[in-house]
Structure formats: C-alpha cells, structure tokens
Predict the structure.
Amino acid sequence: MPEPTTDLAEATRSGPGRLLIAVYGIFALAATARSAVQIGTRFSDAPLPYLLSAFAAVVYVLATVALARGDGTSRRVALVSCAVELVGVLVVGTVSLVVPDAFPDATVWSGFGQGYGFIPLVLPVLGLLWIRRVNSSAR
C-alpha cells in the first residue's frame, strides 16, 4: 500500500517536529558559520577539529532539510543524519575527553556538545525518536 506522502510529510513537520526543525536549522547555521570562520582564519591551528565542525554542519543541514521535507525518502535521510550525528557526538565527545591533545580547539561535538549546553547530544536522540513516531503512525 503506498504511503500517503502529504499526510506523513505534514506529520513530520508539525507539532514537536516543527521545533526540532527549528533547532536543527539553528545548529546548521551555527556550525556552518563556526567552521567557515575557523577554516578560513586559522585552519593550521587545529585542522581536525575544524574539519569535524564542518562535517557536523553538513550533517545538521541534511537533517534540517530532510525533516522539513518530510516525505519517505527525506525521513530516511533524516534517520541516517541523526544516527551519524549521534555516533559523531559520542565518538568525538569521548575522544575529546580521553585524548584532549587531539583537539587543541573545540568542535561542535567536543565534550558531548558541552559548549552548546549538551544539545548536540540530545538533539539526535530526539530526532530519532520523532522519526520513529512518525514512521510508526504510517503503519
């Protein structure tokens, strides 16, 4: 049975989904601006953290657009984006605490997103839960 695309797309971006999209959009802008400034002005100081911030920006942009579109393919892209983000936050967060010398400057995900009030740690979990809820309502 084909999925009622319009209804599910609306469900994805309504209620809590609307807030989720807004927060992802803010993080997309913040991470993009941060990484652009870091890479453009002092890349040689800490290339790995600055490239990781740029990667985080790409993930946030993908998640924002995919959640805002809300169709079946976009929800799958959002699911992968949120999963990649969660793995990134956990890996970078752990490494930044265990091997602090590897990160001479912070990334968006350093210390599990400590510099951003741990929102980078919570956001992908909320995103995954929201996508799961919308997908389960499709069944």
